[in-house]
Specification:
This protein has helices at about 5-15, 20-25, 30-45, 60-85, 100-115, 130-135, 185-190, 200-210, 215-220, 225-235, 250-255, 285-295, and strands at about 50, 55, 90-95, 120-125, 145, 155-170, 195, 220-225, 240-245, 255-260, 270-275. The longest helix is centred in the first third of the chain and has 27 residues, at about 60-85. The protein has three domains: about 5-85, Arc Repressor Mutant, subunit A, CATH 1.10.10; about 90-165 and about 270-295, 3-Layer(aba) Sandwich (D-Maltodextrin-Binding Protein, domain 2), CATH 3.40.190; about 165-270, 3-Layer(aba) Sandwich (D-Maltodextrin-Binding Protein, domain 2), CATH 3.40.190.290. Strands 3, 4, 5, 6, 7, 8, 9, 10 and 11 form a nine-stranded mixed beta sheet that branches. A two-stranded antiparallel sheet has the order 1-2. The chain is elongated. With about 300 residues, it is of the alpha/beta class.
């Protein structure tokens, strides 16, 4: 018995067909049949029942296939690890960024790699946390940096907290509210509120502090995953941005935007996490990305 025999069994288990499994394994159907027969002889029992045109795993087959998945995955990770460590400073960074991390990290990361590490290839996926998790689990992405409150703990995920960032209300510098010293949430809500989709926990915190009128489902007029687009809209309209203050740092620094000081101040914060697959070998180049994230994902 070897890894290839187990891979062939899994191919049949997943396709339900010797012909499709043989095609996926780049071999003839007869060669695949001989591989399964060898595995059955080694284990001393039938693994597949051939019922007409259908192929079903026996009880023993189901048990072996379940165990084989971990073995095959481990072998794939060993091969991948060896390839990665031979790449040195090259290789690739393939990551997913949530709305907040994307606004803070994407452009600085691209500039940093292009100027300091031109041998590294970078691919960044954007979208909802749910979509990025699907891509992580399908191994299209190496890691995610996302809103920690939108990640449910799972055995296959390694979730590392990255700290919290302050949130607040931002408007353009010449906004009617920008000239006022005392503001309440009611004052802000007289204008369109722009925000990203917020987690249920953040929504709960806002409602606890300000009451039902602060529920994002009813308070938000403009909502999308791209914070930069929201801030651009705020800088050109009477809309007010609710979210990570650090995402507007450039506009705040040059005087184009202003943070509103409402009473009471918003207590809810943005909490981010670095998410990878548990047991997956990280490429050496990912240490560079991880360090970059910790340095730049701050107020």
């Amino acid at each position: 018995m070897n890894i290839r025999h187990l891979e062939h069994l899994l191919a049949i288990a997943e396709t339900g067909s010797f012909s499709r499994a043989a095609e996926r394994s780049f071999m003839t159907q007869s060669a695949l049949s001989r591989s399964i027969q060898t595995l059955e002889q080694t284990l001393g029992g039938r693994l597949i029942d051939r019922i007409g045109k259908r192929n079903e795993l026996t009880a023993l087959g189901h048990d072996i296939a379940e165990r084989a998945r971990a073995i095959v995955l481990g072998a794939q990770e060993i091969r991948l690890s060896a390839q990665r460590f031979q790449q040195g400073d090259g290789g690739a960074i393939s990551v997913g960024l949530g709305s907040g991390p994307g606004a803070l990290l994407m452009t600085p990361l691209l500039c940093h790699i292009a100027t300091r590490h031109p041998g590294i290839k970078v691919s960044i996926a954007r979208g909802s946390t749910e979509l990025l998790l699907v891509q992580l689990r399908s191994r299209e992405l190496e890691a995610l940096v996302v809103d920690a409150r939108r990640i449910a703990p799972a055995p296959d995920l390694k979730i590392e907290a990255l700290g919290e960032l302050r949130t607040g209300f931002i408007c353009r510098a010449d906004h009617p509210l920008a000239r006022r010293r005392k503001l309440t949430l009611s004052d802000v809500q007289k204008h369109p509120v722009a925000t990203t989709p917020l987690s249920s926990e953040v929504a709960r915190l806002l409602v606890e502090q300000f009451g039902p009128r602060a529920d994002p489902d009813t308070m938000a007029s403009l909502r999308c995953e791209d914070i930069n687009s929201l801030i651009d809209a705020v800088s050109q309209s009477d809309a007010v941005f609710l979210g990570i203050v650090a995402a507007a740092r450039e506009g705040l620094a040059c005087g184009r935007l202003k943070e509103l000081q409402i009473t009471p101040a918003v207590k809810a914060t943005a909490r981010f996490a670095y998410v990878t697959l548990a047991g997956r070998t990280a490429a050496p180049v990912m240490r560079l990305f991880r360090g970059f994230v910790r340095e730049h994902l701050r107020d």
